Amino acid sequence: MSHATTSIAAEQDGPADIALSEFFDGHPVATFAIDTAHVVTHWNRACEQLLGWTKADMVGTANHWQAFYPRPRPLLADVIIAGAAGLESELERLYPGKHRRSALIPDAYEVEEFFPNIGASGHWLHFTAAPLRDGNGRVVGAIETLRDVTERRVAENALRRAHDNLEHVVDKRTGQLADINAKLQEDIAQRLLAEAELRRSNLELTELNQQLSRAQQQLLQADKLASIGQLAAGVAHEINNPIGYIFSNFRTLQNYLDQLFGMLDAYQRAEPSLAAPDAATLRALRERIDLDFLRQDIPTLMAESGEGIVRVRHIVQDLKDFSRVDANQEWVWADLHRGIDSTLNIVSNEVKYKADVVKEYGAIPDIQCLPLQINQVVMNLIVNAAHAIGDERGRITVRTGRDGDDHVWLEIGDNGSGIAPETVSRIFDPFFTTKAIGKGTGLGLSLAYGIVQKHSGRIDVDTALGQGTRFRVRLPIRHGAATEDPTA
Ligand SMILES: Nc1ncnc2c1ncn2[C@@H]1O[C@H](COP(=O)(O)OP(=O)(O)OP(=O)(O)O)[C@@H](O)[C@H]1O
Ligand SMILES: [Mg+2]
Fold first, then answer.
1. Of 91, 120, 148, which residue constitutes the final position of a domain?
2. Ligand 1, pocket-test mutation among 319, 347, 354, 384, most atoms within 8 A of CB
3. What is the whole-number distance in angstroms between the Cα of residue 446 and the centre of ligand 2?
4. Are 382 and 347 in contact (CB under 8 A)?
5. Are 225 and 347 within one domain?
6. Which ligand has its closest atom nearest to the C-alpha of 427?
7. Residue 112 located in a structural domain
8. Residues 42 and 161 in one domain
9. 16 and 105, same domain (yes or no)
10. Do 88 and 144 reside in the same domain of the chain?
11. Which of 286, 364, 387, 405 is the least crowded, having the fewest Cβ atoms under 10 Å away?
12. Is 487 within a domain?
């Protein structure tokens, strides 16, 4: 260490100075002082400990920069000595943004800065410098105190890092939470969608199930009709021939009987002119067989048998219709309303004493059909309706209408007995009847069903016991164009 300059302390080494020096030395805060020539006058023990340079190294020299920097440069105390002019700009140049005026000591400044050259890994120092003045207020030097704030700065830094870290963690967590939340919302939305989808599928399934059971019923019905149809065809064929010759023989027989009765009359008239024994024998014979009664009874028996034969022929005809052995009809365009009207005329005897017929015809086009068969359907439905009406006069309603582009419908409703729920599934069965023996064959509705099916249509019934029944027949306008889906 070179001592190029002389210290003011060395020059004025009086007792007061020694006392001041000792106070200075014992002061726990690292402190040094310089004179106006920037020469170190004081360098206390705390300063030695903090900076690693002894009083002997420093006092009397202007080398105090060495304790702080690798290269010469002014310290805060040096700047303060330089004076007021240009002080602020010099401070700003040396300690940009770090210096401030002391709140306690006038004309003093303080700075906090890191010094990488002090100690093994550098130190943070908070230092304050103030001018020293003589009795006249003239600046004679400057004093600078240094506080080691490394621990505080390290703690602050750690705190800041911890804070930053915390913020980062919070940010991250917030982000994660937002993600989870979004995912949750999405989950909920998807679950709602899935639920709706499930409900829809369920509805569809129920609908499908209903269609299936309807289809099954129709199939069952068609199946029954098919086997009954075969049976009916066989029976009709077998009965048809004998009933044919019974019918024609019966008429011949009627003829013969008439002739025989005529002849008997002639004999009876000739009786008085006969010889006594013969006449007596004849009379006895006539009385024995009660000829008068026979004369009355035979025509009655013949008439009843005749009716019976006609009925059997009718049933055979129905059976033949039912089994569709008479397949030689033609599909023609026909006016449904005309068919209904003529059918109503034919059955008017069955209806007129029991019910009023109300017609509500809609605007419908001609349809391509087998008109005689359709008439038969209408006839069966109207006769059934009339039969369902009790003693009180009822009402039969005949309605028609259009169903979409391709279909028409007709309805025959009555306010009669209605059909019991346990019966309604059987009414289309062949030979099912609730009517007295001889009153109904139970073929009417199964015939109607077969005919409607042949037309690719459908027939439905709607009934309430004690209130009435409504049959609805739906038919395609064009034959073979739109095949009715029996499950629809
Ligand atoms: N409009 C109706 N109101 C109440 N019951 C009805 C009606 N139509 C049909 N039925 C019931 O359906 C059964 C079957 O009818 P279907 O026309 O097939 O035979 P039927 O009328 O008894 O005899 P058929 O028509 O061969 O003379 C009837 O016996 C009756 O019980
Ligand atoms: Mg009937």
1. 148
2. 384
3. 9
4. yes
5. no
6. 1
7. yes
8. no
9. yes
10. yes
11. 405
12. no
Nearest alpha carbon, ligand 1 atom 3? 388
Residues with CB under 6 A from ligand 1: 380, 384-385, 388, 414, 416-417, 419, 427, 432-435, 440-446, 469
Distance 483 CA to ligand 2 centre (A): 27
CATH number, position 391: 3.30.565.10
Q: Are residues 134 and 179 in the same domain?
A: no
- Which residue among 118, 148, 178 closes a domain? 148
CA of 246 to the centre of ligand 2 (A): 27
Ligand closest to the CA atom of residue 445: 1
Beta strands 355-360 and 394-403, pairing class:
parallel
Domain count, the chain: 3
Per the CB < 8 A criterion, the answer to whether 455 and 370 are in contact is yes
In angstroms, rounded to a whole number, what is the distance separating the alpha carbons of residues 110 and 9? 25
Q: Which residue has the tokens 């019934």?
A: 461
Q: Tens place of pLDDT for every residue, the chain, 488 residues?
A: 333 333 344 344 555 566 777 888 888 999 999 999 999 999 999 999 999 999 999 999 999 999 999 999 999 999 998 777 788 889 999 999 999 998 888 889 999 999 998 888 899 999 999 999 988 989 999 999 999 999 998 898 899 999 999 999 999 999 999 999 999 999 999 999 999 999 999 999 998 898 888 777 777 766 766 676 677 778 888 888 888 899 899 999 999 999 999 998 888 888 888 888 888 888 888 889 888 898 899 999 999 998 888 888 877 876 776 565 445 678 999 999 988 998 888 788 889 999 999 999 999 999 999 988 898 899 899 999 999 999 999 999 999 999 999 999 999 999 999 999 999 999 998 788 998 876 777 888 988 998 899 899 999 999 999 999 999 999 999 998 655 444 34
Which residue owns the Cα nearest ligand 1 atom 20?
Answer: 442
Q: Kindly identify the ligand whose nearest atom is closest to the C-alpha of 434.
A: 1
Q: Which atom of ligand 1 is nearest to the CA of 417?
A: 4
Residue 349 falls inside a structural domain:
yes
Q: HSE on the CB side for 333, CA within 13 Å?
A: 4
Domain that holds residue 187: 156-322
Tell me the angle at which helices 444-454 and 150-270 cross, rounded to the nearest 10 degrees. 120
